[in-house]
């Protein structure tokens, strides 16, 4: 089921922080992600639909996302406006212990367009919860990215392979996978 016009649709931007924009983060896919998120964000702002910025605050002092380090800061292109909601999390799922579900329900928002990083971690965890909580979630395939990694058997998987598997894990069960152009049509 696609989002319908005349309903509130929140744009959820996950972990677009400075720590994700470094080479240390690793080999990634979808180099157009940032430009696509910027376009979605501009459209959401123009339409005055809700925007939620999710920020990861690590529990590990060695992490670039440990509070007080530059890695925690939002990338300049994704700096929230004063009217936009910020959710701080310290686990991959943006719904866990954050008040996000309550915030969305209080604003009668039941449809979510999810973008950001990483597809195989925070995006997937958040979207699984969104689906389980009854939200209509849409993951924008070309406005999310992830990193290459070894699988459980020790085989190397490219970022494109990891991304495709994460999208497959979510599609139809917890969310619908859409393109940026399809997401723009929701407004």
TrEMBL record:
<keyword id="KW-0378">Hydrolase</keyword>
<feature type="domain" description="Isochorismatase-like">
    <location>
        <begin position="10"/>
        <end position="160"/>
    </location>
</feature>
<dbReference type="Pfam" id="PF00857">
    <property type="entry name" value="Isochorismatase"/>
</dbReference>
<dbReference type="GO" id="GO:0016787">
    <property type="term" value="F:hydrolase activity"/>
</dbReference>
<dbReference type="InterPro" id="IPR050272">
    <property type="entry name" value="Isochorismatase-like_hydrls"/>
</dbReference>
<dbReference type="InterPro" id="IPR036380">
    <property type="entry name" value="Isochorismatase-like_sf"/>
</dbReference>
<protein>
    <submittedName>
        <fullName>Cysteine hydrolase</fullName>
    </submittedName>
</protein>
<dbReference type="InterPro" id="IPR000868">
    <property type="entry name" value="Isochorismatase-like_dom"/>
</dbReference>
């Amino acid at each position: 089921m696609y989002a319908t016009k005349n309903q509130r649709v929140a744009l959820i931007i996950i972990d677009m922080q400075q720590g994700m924009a470094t080479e240390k983060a690793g080999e990634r896919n979808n180099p157009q992600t940032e430009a696509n998120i910027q376009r979605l964000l501009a459209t959401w702002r123009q339409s005055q639909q809700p925007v939620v910025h999710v920020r990861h605050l690590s529990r590990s002092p060695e992490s670039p996302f440990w509070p007080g380090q530059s890695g925690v800061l939002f990338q300049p292109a994704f700096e929230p406006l004063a009217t936009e909601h910020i959710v701080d999390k310290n686990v991959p799922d943006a719904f866990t212990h954050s008040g996000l579900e309550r915030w969305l329900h209080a604003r009668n928002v039941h449809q979510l367009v999810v973008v950001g990083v990483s597809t195989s971690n925070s995006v997937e965890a958040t979207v699984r919860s969104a689906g389980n909580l009854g939200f209509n979630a849409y993951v924008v395939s070309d406005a999310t990215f992830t990193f290459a990694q070894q699988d459980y058997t020790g085989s190397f998987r490219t970022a494109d392979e990891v991304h495709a598997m994460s999208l497959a894990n979510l599609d139809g069960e917890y969310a619908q996978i859409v393109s940026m152009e399809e997401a723009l049509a929701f407004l």
